[in-house]
Amino acid sequence: MTTQPRPRRAPSGAAVLRDDITESLRAAVFEELASAGYGRMSVEAVARRAGVGKTAIYRRWPSKLELVIDAVSAVAALRIPAPDTGTLLGDVRALLGILSRALRHPLASQIVPDLLAEAARNPEIARTLEQALRDTQRDITSKVFGAAVKRCELPEELDTDLVLDLLMGPLYWRLTVLRTAPTSAYLDDLAVTVVDKLTQTVRRP
After folding, report:
1. Helix-strand-coil percent breakdown of the chain, rounded to 5?
2. Is 16 a residue whose pLDDT tops 70?
3. Which domains does the chain have, with CATH numbers?
């Protein structure tokens, strides 16, 4: 008769970091950023909002900066599926809709401008935002325009960074600077304009 090995137990006194508390803290970070901004946000306020003690934060992150960087990085890791409508124009219009909704989210519309201002003073936040706001979108646009290249709608030497600027620039200006939500007609026109500009290189003799 064989004896089944007993499961190992955590060493006495070891802190077990519960995933549900970690996620609650990350959510509390974004809510506190939207409410107070990075400069006035405190570890104590995040802990109160999450319904835990400060020690729960310091077991996971050594400082407010590390807490914010981890929360932003965790959101950046959640990849948005790239649209696949079968045409370049359809994909660009769908992508503009996704980006517009993301930037219109109440938390994003308050947090992103504040963190961008903080990034000018803090290189670590700047690097994190580079990953969160640009690298994530670069991954999506690469898939969308890579599919267009395979369909022979676009040339292989397409500058995806320039394309990302063409897509995000007008939306960010309208939503963050002018504080005006783009209409469906505006997104339609923007999609046509971007696609027309991109395909000019294909139509050249």
Report:
1. 70, 0, 30
2. no
3. 19-75 (1.10.10.60), 79-203 (1.10.357.10)
CA nearest to 163, candidates 123, 134, 122: 134
Q: For residue range 100-131, list pLDDT tens digits in order.
A: 887 787 667 778 778 878 888 888 888 877 77
Between CA 203 and CA 178 the distance in angstroms is 35
| Nearest partner of 172 among 134, 118, 122, judged by Cα | 134
Q: To the nearest 10°, the Cα dihedral for 122, 124, 125, 127?
A: 120
202: which 2 tokens?
Answer: 């294909």
| Closest among 93, 123, 95, 128 to 112, alpha carbons compared | 128
SS3 (DSSP) at 108: helix
Q: What is the pTM of this model?
A: 0.69
